[in-house]
Amino acid sequence: MFDKIPATIVTGFLGAGKTTLIRGLIENAGNRRLALVINEFGDVGVDGEILKSCGIESCREEDIVELANGCLCCTVADDFLPAIEALLKRAPELDHIIIETSGLALPKPLLKAFDWPQVRSRLTVDGVIAVVDAAAVADGRFVDDAEALAAERAADPSVEHDNPLEEVYEDQLLCADLIVLNKIDLLQPTEIERVKSAVEEASSGRAKVIATQEGRVDADVALGLEAGAENDLDSRPSHHDSETDHDHDDFDSFVVDIPALENPADYVRRLGEVAGRHDVLRIKGFLDVAGKPMRLLVQGVGSRFRQHYDRAWGAREARRGRLVVIGQKGLDRAAIEAALG
């Protein structure tokens, strides 16, 4: 009887820092042989590209499986199982599998897949890690204005109010064994304590919460939770437990082709303005800067953006800028494309 391969599910909302955390785990994996399954909501594989270009010997390109343009929680049978079965064919070469869900994924349907006989006999879920953007929580991104909502219901008691952002956020926390409160460098100490308390309350106190920046978590901790989470489904409630199927009709994404840039700093400032004006949740992708041999990686959460040159364009690679835009249904796509193009 062979030991089961441990798997870690890394969940967290759009732009929380999941890929940064995973890269840190790869860099500090020691002698562990890792494989990655990377899932993205949009059809530009930014996260997989970031990890493929990291140049870390313990994580080769053939160890990375990319599943783009959808959420694993909706396509477990069609996408996740074939990906896992392909990795299991290499089981003797692997010590641990890390699965990064899309920022809009519900982790519990994916966790349930580990209870399927063909998976359960080979894998165990070492733990579910939820990465949280501390600044986004502090800004009230996931929680409605209680006073405004009460006034709305007082004016019209028949009004039904759903907040899909809050539901996804809470589902991710309620499924977690470890919550990584990331980006605390963007907050004041008093804000950190307030946000930590809010996260602990939203998670019902079931998970340990650690505060960090740049997704820094000790690999021995993150990859050694030993939760056996597939055996503990009932203690991980979800807003969608009563649903036999679900989708992500509350959210949408599209890709914008961007011509070569002369002034990338000005363009990134424009991205922040456009995201704020249209309440865009996430913009990320690669840009072509005229005269530069390297491509520019741009990532934004709301109106907060970061950018850096990540690698040189390949000799046979088409130099073209592409950005994926993600937001709630109702985005003015035409206006956003006109502003970004």
From TrEMBL:
Coiled coil: none annotated. Residues 251-340 form the CobW C-terminal domain. The keyword Nucleotide-binding applies. Keywords: Chaperone, Hydrolase, Nucleotide-binding. SMART domains: CobW_C. One of its GO terms (biological process) is cobalamin biosynthetic process. It catalyses: GTP + H2O = GDP + phosphate + H(+). Residues 233-249 have a biased composition (Basic and acidic residues). Pfam families: cobW, CobW_C. InterPro entries: CobW (IPR012824), CobW-likC_sf (IPR036627), CobW-like_C (IPR011629), CobW/HypB/UreG_nucleotide-bd (IPR003495), P-loop_NTPase (IPR027417), Zinc-reg_GTPase_activator (IPR051316). One of its GO terms (cellular component) is cytoplasm. Transmembrane segments: none annotated. Residues 230-249 are annotated as: Disordered. One of its GO terms (molecular function) is hydrolase activity. Zinc chaperone that directly transfers zinc cofactor to target proteins, thereby activating them. Zinc is transferred from the CXCC motif in the GTPase domain to the zinc binding site in target proteins in a process requiring GTP hydrolysis. Belongs to the SIMIBI class G3E GTPase family. ZNG1 subfamily. This is Cobalamin biosynthesis protein CobW. It comes from Rhodoblastus acidophilus.
